[in-house]
Design a protein that fits this description.
By secondary structure, the chain is an all-alpha fold. The protein has two domains: about 60 residues, no CATH class; about 70 residues, no CATH class.
Length: about 150
Amino acid sequence: MSDPIAELLAELEREAYVADPAIATSLHLARALQKPLADLLGERLNPGATVRSREQRVDWLRATAEHFYHPACSCRIGSPEEGVVDPELRVHGVEGLRVADASVMPRVASGNTNAPTYMIAERCAALMLGQAPSAAAADQPVAVAQG
């Protein structure tokens, strides 16, 4: 049985990005495909021209690979059985604590999470000030989750 903590630590250390030889191979193939276009592409920036061997590519990947998405959905809105916070962003079972960031999203947005996170923060501020949403906003769903 695998150790989930060890697996998480490995990913955090960016080992997961290069443990699969396909990633380094993909980088190698991308560089091979660039050769016919060298006159059009100009200087190679990432990885630079000094990164030549497979070992150097793996080292470069370990040093530079990172997640490109924004963390979300780790404190999702829902009932105590399904979520961490209620619809008013209060943490279930913890008095006086609210969460107002992308972690409360039930699903990752298909676009950038910046604007929805601002809306969540504005909603939380209004709730804390005792301001209810307008009747029109409360009656009309903005989106319906597709299951």
